[in-house]
Request: fold
Amino acid sequence: MKGNYGIKSILLILIIGVLTYISIAGLSIPGTEINIEKVADTIRYGIDIRGGVRAVLTAPAGIDPTEDQMNAAKAVVENRLDYQRVYDRTVLLEKANKRIIVEIPWRQDEKDFDPQKAINELGMTALLTFREVDTEKVDEYGNYLPLDDKIILKGNDVKKATPEMDTNTGKVYVRLELTSEGSKKFEEATERLVGKPIAIFMDEQLISAPNVREKISGGNAVIEMGNTDTDTATKEATSLANTINAGALEFKLEAAQIESISPILGKNALNVILLAGLVASILIGLFMLLYYRLPGIIADIALLFQIVVQVLIISSVGMSLTLAGIAGIILSIGMGVDANVIIYERIKEEIRAGKTVRAAIDVGFDRAFAAIFDGNITTLIVAVVLYVLGSGPIQSFAFTLGIGVLLNFITAIVISRTFQRTVSGFKITKNRWLYGVRGGSSNV
Amino acid sequence: MFDFVGKRKYFFGFSTLILIACIVGLIVNQGLNLDIQFRGGTILEFQMENSSFDLNLAKQLVEQEIGKIVSPQSSYSLDTNNERVDLLVLSIASKLTQEEHDKVVSVIEENFKVKEGTKPTPRAVDAAMGKEMAVKSIIAVAIAALLMVIYVWIRFKIMGGLLAGVSAVIALLHDVMVMITLYAVFRLPVNESFIAAVLTIVGYSINDTIVIFDRIRENSTLNKKDSLEDITNKSINQSLSRTINTALTTVLAVTTVYIFASYYNIESIKLFMLPMLVGLISGTYSTIFIASPVWVILKNYQAKRQAASKLKNA
Reply:
């Protein structure tokens, strides 16, 4: 029993050590493709923290959109940014001049800080079309050219797009669920065009042009991704599905004016937040150590794990980290500390009640579990609801909090417990002082 | 053992005072001080001689001049000759009258090096987070609260389920009320920081309440004969050191960030941390002094009604 926990503990410490090292210093192994940058550089910070780009978008000359169309265009831009997890965008409608003002944060890997390039992130009109093509007319690459007058399906005929993979062939595609009207149109067209290609365009770019084998009814269509490797294809499929789901613009948006903007929180905000966060963490760590002694060390290691993994996840999904997101992190760290406090207070109580240290630890974890479980599940419910129904800062908060709460479980229940079991196996650690309980050794 | 439940009228009285302050604050200050994201307003762009200008100073001067919330930013763009143009951008949370506009322009021109011969471009913008989004967010929070009640209902059957859930939500509303009081009375700008701070406190308050309820649940099973008051007092006293230590560590962390923000003079982070601090204290307070006594009252009331109806039926 004891040895078992010992090995597990050593493994855990190794894992935590490596993860912490990677997130602080990055990891690059010469000769391999492994090259991870340190996490502070790979997080996409929000406009409020690092600044970004502001662009004024207008309809192209000659098009005079209605107010409703402008509102729709604004909604599409917002949706698209939500799908990209750019939660801290500002999308403003300037009604009088029919312009949309968009602000987005710099990308995490931004090197040249060129506002023009940054704004291309939302440059597309995202007009999805299924078109009949003239098989005679191809461009120099052998791709079909769009025929404007023969559109079979448009983006608004699609109810939902999902990226999927055929587990047998490994082929990646986007499944389109069509509206009832869309299904009718698609059925009619596929019946008429058996043996001929239908070209699928995103804006003016051909995505694929499959041949129709038979009439397709039932309201489903698929867009197969190209023959790239699975990883790239999956990424492309996800991004395509997201763009389709975000909705299409009825007209192209042109960027009339593009500027860089400074962080809303002030120029120094990021450094101050990082520094203050570090100092606050050290203070909490010291408090735990001084107050709870031996278990305090364990709690500190467990909390380190929680913070490091949370930050790594945030950086790897590329969400933009804003003040609201940081609030989510702070809350989950607070709850992580709380979980440990609950456990160790309970253990102290049980030792005071006359139990042996070993028994007190077991009972302490068991009794504390219900409280931690219910507290975390309730918070998780809130996080999930806010993530699904909210947008912008609310979603950003819900995302970091949700991850934090899940990690909390693992940390408090699995990691702390394994460590605690291990150390309580040693004779010296049976001293009650080590658990912050007054007076001599426990009656082992 | 401190009698938390017995002294409840003092705590209820204290919270009622805050509620009154909240209402008075909202009436006197005509609602919350909404920032440009929620209210819409005007964005003014000045072309500057160079990129070195003090944003804080610009904010202070303009706010003094017209009494509206101002968020300053520095910015640059490239002109047609590909030359860098430095910009001072002021987001003002209000539509400006011509007079106000002129005041802003003259105070900036007097105190900063605005590029000669240029005029600022004003843009009137709508709220980025308008009514639609506010409604959407409130629905999201309401559904979250409802699901929370249902979960507590299922998990805390021995505490009367629904009653425990309702008590937890009352504590939650209490904390939101305290934060709104802070924003209303001191006219703090209500922007995204407000949303973030309120959400954090909502999460903190729920967790804090659930942990005490867990202890009440445990003690209810162990000591079935004891009165609700005794069980509740015992539970609060038993978990007191946990409550204090958790509150202490979180307050320590938030205070640290606040001190750093003050030292480096970053107003926006101070304005985020201060409500958070107040909310943390309120969240801890409401668990002990609101959620638990309210639960005792509800449970006793329910017991009385059940006894009465039994008598009737007998």
Q: What stands out?
A: Residues 440-444 of chain A have pLDDT under 50 and may be disordered. Residues 2-39+266-435 of chain A form a domain with the Multidrug efflux transporter AcrB transmembrane fold fold (CATH 1.20.1640.10). The two ends of chain A are 18 Å apart (CA to CA).
